[in-house]
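Archive entry: two folds, one per protein. Generate the first.
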Amino acid sequence: MLNSARRAFVPLQIRKTLLMHPSVRALSTVTDQMRNSRNIGISAHIDSGKTTLTERILFYTGRINEIHDVRGKDGVGAKMDSMDLEREKGITIQSAATYCRWGQNHINIIDTPGHVDFTVEVERALRVLDGAILVVCGVSGIQSQTLTVDRQMKRYNVPRVAFVNKLDRMGANPLKALNGMRQQLKLGAALVQVPMGLEGEHEGVVDIINREAVYFLGEKGLNIQRKPVPEQYVEQCEKYRAELIERVADIDDEIAELFMAEEEPTPKQLKDAIRRQTIARKFVPVFMGSAFKNKGVQLLLDGVNDYLPAPPEVRNVALDVSNGEAEVELKCDGGAPLVALAFKLEESKFGQLTYVRIYQGTLKKGSMVLNTKTGKKVKVPRLVRMHSNEMLDVDSAGAGDVVALFGMDCSSMDTFTDGTINYSMVSMFVPNPVMSLSVKPKESSGIANFGKAMGKFTREDPTLRVDINEKTGETVMSGMGELHLEIYVERMKREYNVECVTGNPAVAYKETITNKATFDYLHKKQSGGSGQYAKVQGYIEPLEDELIAKGVEFEFDNQVVGMNIPTEYITSCEKGARAACLKGVLSGNPLVRVRVVLIDGAAHAVDSNDLSFQLAMQYAIRQAVKNGAKPQVLQPVMSMEVEAPGEFQGSIVGALNKRGGLILASDVNEDGTQVLIKADVPLVEMFGYSTVLRSSTQGKGEFSMEYKDHQPVSREQQDQLVKAFLAKRQGKEEEED
């Protein structure tokens, strides 16, 4: 490449010839493709209209010819809900990928579920995307899963635009949604549009940046008309435009200078500033509309192009495994060594489908790639672009793209390179399961297919865990909630023809301690020849609230001075401490939120070994917990929201109180027709609640819940759990005798 200083001396004709050279032309095209690409996800609380919005986006961009609704009367259903279960239940269960073109830009879109039970689908999508659309219900405002999605976007540093949806619905209040974003989500949000009319009178939006009214005419909103702002909206337009400029001036130097000089920015200056600060994650532009009524979607697509980043504008890092996992910044360059991340797996009758985000380099069909996790080289047999459940074969894909590989054996979150580098991408956050279910095939003939189904489902979904209880022989399936497990049981029946018998779900109880307790334990065993000898001294104490809030469950602190315990046995002590915490003394559940401090001990020149110190620590901790640490049982508590007609408020609150719920808030909308109740409720009390709610509200009530934290059970409940655990243990001992 010629630098700018020398370019002036190259004759014009030679410059033209150079620019026409295939390698230069190819480099230019790839760069343009990257700059004109967007990788976005659509995320929100359940039933906020994500899939409906995606359906309209696909229609307006020409990817589909007809609009079908999530619960359509024609029985077709939305394009992105390709599973029969999704169409029957009217919810998104799996994230689905598609692509489209709007203006000059190629847009990869992932539509994600809103139900908390399928939150890992949102997690893995946001891990690999460059931007997102946060959909907020114009009636309900910020809801429980909106808070979860917001945390996920912040966790992966994803810039976003917001879309306040459902402004055609009774009780729509876009300012409530805006204030919720500012107060509850702590976002620097401001309107870039104001709606013209709400509920049945919603007819379009006012673009406050360009000061024009936009109408979406025709049955499907295809005829867009831009007109001067109607007189009744002029004052509102100017008010929110001034607020927009003021908020952008607070964070953008260019607009701040104009603001201080009392000069008004041009629409281009304002848009450029909004783009800069959106990509910097300091600002969220808020769009308005109704996806169901086909209003506002095209302007939202303009906003995706205008404000969300292209792949080269996002900083991505990998870990260099060959250099002590040092951070390496990746270049969004098709000519660089390949780095790609497998973020989602699907099993089909044709083999495994692996969704891949390419961070740098080019992935080609038929090429050999290195799986840095396994160290194996594998061939790329088939490369496709996904449009929901449809596939388009492609020969290659470059940096910044999202594609899928067919027929490649790998695991979720595996990193692929071309073999010249040994990089690994950071994995995603996977929440722990909160509910378990014993499950077995109804007929013995279904055992083989049952095993296949479990293998497939656990590869697809990292929040689904399957374990065999060694003592009972039962298969225990653990997941994120009742619906999560129910869906997989139903999928086994439909996809593998295996009908299952399920047992009562088991709640993931834990144990902790409330008091500091010391230990001084000698483990000594002699049976001829070299025996076992290990002495450990120290204490166990509860972790601080700050560490618990960060998710820390166990901490080991070595404070041994000198060589009373040889250095090589310190790790043995930690292993023993961790092993002791796998099963608490009260109910047999994991012991968490503890710090084990090792102060001193003793070793024998001949008899001390790894096993001796592991066993010494196990016995020491169990003894300390029993004798002075005052253990208690913890249970999972769910943060839940119930939405129903106001007339049922009393019965809902009463039912939650009966279930040990703590009512946090009860908000009635302006006309008193709907009530939103927020509460914290123990998970063990929530089994079957969906049936109770439906019957008590004539089918009009809805609820959602997500895991909040583990909290102590009541003394009475703890006594029952301890009694049940002792009886179960005694029964097993009698069986063994």
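Generate the second and append.
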Amino acid sequence: MLRRNCLLLFLCFLFEQSSCAPFQSRPGQEWPHSQTGPSAAGRNGGSRGFQRVKRGWVWNQFFVLEEYMGSDPQYVGKLHTDLDKGDSAVKYTLSGDGAGTIFTIDQITGDIHALRSLDREVKPYYTLRAQAVDIETNRPLEPESEFVIKVQDINDNEPKFLEGPYTASVPEMSPVGTYVMKVTATDADDPTYGNSARVVYSILHGQPYFSVDPKTGVIRTALPNMDREMKELYQVLIQAKDMGGQLGGLAGTTTINITLSDVNDNPPRFSKSIFHLRVPESSAVGSAVGRIKAHDLDIGKNAEVEYNIVPGDGGAMFDITTNEHNQEGIIMLKKPLDYETKKAYTFKVEASNAHLDPRFHNFGPFKDTATVKINVLDVDEPPVFSKPSYAMDVYEDTPQGTIIGAVTAQDLDAGNSPVRYSIDWKSDLDSFFDIDPVRGTISTNELLDRESIAQHNISVVATKVNNPVLTSKVAVTVHVLDINEFSPELAMPYETFVCESAKVGQPFKMMYDRLQTLTLSLNPESAVYPCFNNTAGVVTLRGGFKRRSQEIYHLPVVIEDGGLQTLSSTGTLTIHVCGCDTDGSLLTCSAEAIFLPVGLSTGALIAILVCIVILLVIVVLYVGVRRQKKKETLMTSKEDIRDNVIHYDDEGGGEEDTHAFDMGTLRNPKVIKENMFRRDVKPELGLCPRRPVASQNSTDISNFISLRLQEHEGDTSAPPYDSLATYAYEGEGSVAESLSSIESVKGETEEDYDYLNEWGPRFKTLAGIFGERSESQSDVTSSITTENKH
């Protein structure tokens, strides 16, 4: 290609003035000689109008080599028109992509050069415009034409793996040809021109384990039975070369890290065939005795191991579980150990895979077996009692020091240390019992009483002499047995009644006793027979009972118990003869017998009567006190009333209201003065003081009230409704005479009542009454009223 372009450039140089340059696609096109276009007009002085003429030169695209490394500008091509006669009258111009910066043109010759090296991968072509103009007038000789300069590709880019390095995985033990992954390399060169972009794949490193398809880049396994446990990671180097892999092509490489994934193709294996373990005999049930492990070369769930104890000698004493974190087998103690009974245990443990792969069953059994030997270590243990608990019986009132039983403990260790016994003081605070420290016999230390404590729970402690720290404890229950020491007796004094119409053999009462076995005697007139639950029934042996002949029967009852030493007592049952109706209900009986059947004794009846009497006395006293109370009058003495100021906040109820004033305050008046003014109207200037009405000590107050009522009834200045009548008297004999401001009369006819406004809002109405002067009494705007008292 390079040689061909050089040849073209050489031919162009030889035929520079020829119109058939290799870059001109249609030679022979010329501007017409008789053109009237602007170019001709510019040179010949023709008209101004521009007339389109046939183009005298046409070309196709130009080509320029990319990555040109020469020192001179690279020649691209030549522009020429038939109007150019070689007299330097035509100038060529260039515009468009890269004009003046990347491409330049010789304005006289039309030669185009590339000023710098070009890269097709950056820009594959450039679009430019060329025009021929008159060099003198700078007017176009023909329209502007567009052409393309293409950058011709060379193999200057190697294939590249854009996503490398790669990682992939394939299961181990896979057959040949198993797909792994696909890689792709890209070449920036022109795929339509030559073989610059045709890529071929090959493996530089990674054989013979893997292979790659040269065209597609698919990687596959090339070796069978690759074992992950032998080698897990493989690095494969893939090369992509252009030019179809020919010599001189460019190449790119990438690395692929291929990991063999695990499959369950390995059974678990114990590192040794025998495991020796030791465990103290004092180990608790459920504690870990030791750990063993079977190693599996696989990983993940393929390495999970299950452990099982093979049934046989010693296996029943232990159990085994799997630790999920490290796949160890933990041997657990299943039953208590005793060095003195058995000192060693031997059993087999089997380890197997939890998840099997059927493809590898032909490899053999996926399990392994090992022997475990466990030696029991002797531990200095506390003494051991012969029984887990003891129960003993003793009769109450047994003499002090009587042996009631014994406990036994021994040291099972090889040393066989002697044992000493003691009673835990917390369990026997009252020291009822004692124990022999050597023999372990338990005896009474106090007299026992079954009725107080029927059962004693004590704890006996056994201690090793060689090691007093080691102790053991056992519970001892002592049952106190009862002896026959109390005579039987009736639970309470029983009283009942029998009807006069009772028939022979009729039961009528049940009796109770404290003991279980009773023997009751018979009576000539009634029989007492024992019943269940320490009860006895009474039946009549004859009929025809009469109250007139005998009202009360006292029935003696002899009670015997059933102990080894029989004890007895005699009780009395009181039977009252009463009258009954046909169904046996009580109708009449003596006073005491009537209450007794309901369960009330004489003392209870007396108490009830006393309470009733006390309540009656309290009620009488209360009523007496209430009757002695009398309402005191307002005036209890005959003393003269000097000044009585009575204040009423309520409003009178009218003329019929007879309770508005207490008339007791008007009794025994001595004197009334005539110069009293009414307090419900404004004082008149010409009024004269009234003369006082005299009265004797025996004068009735009614005469005075009647006189005052007549005055008010004739007074036209008083309101027609309620009025305030003042009945205020002052006693006689005062040296200083009256001090009351109510009856004080001023001689002056003119009075200034403005000072009432200074006394506050409560006197505002009063100031309004006395502050105005009016001839008519109808101008009064407010009054204070109270109903007249008759």
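Annotation attached to the second fold: The chain is about 10% helix and 30% strand. The CA atoms of residues 323 and 329 lie 6 Å apart.
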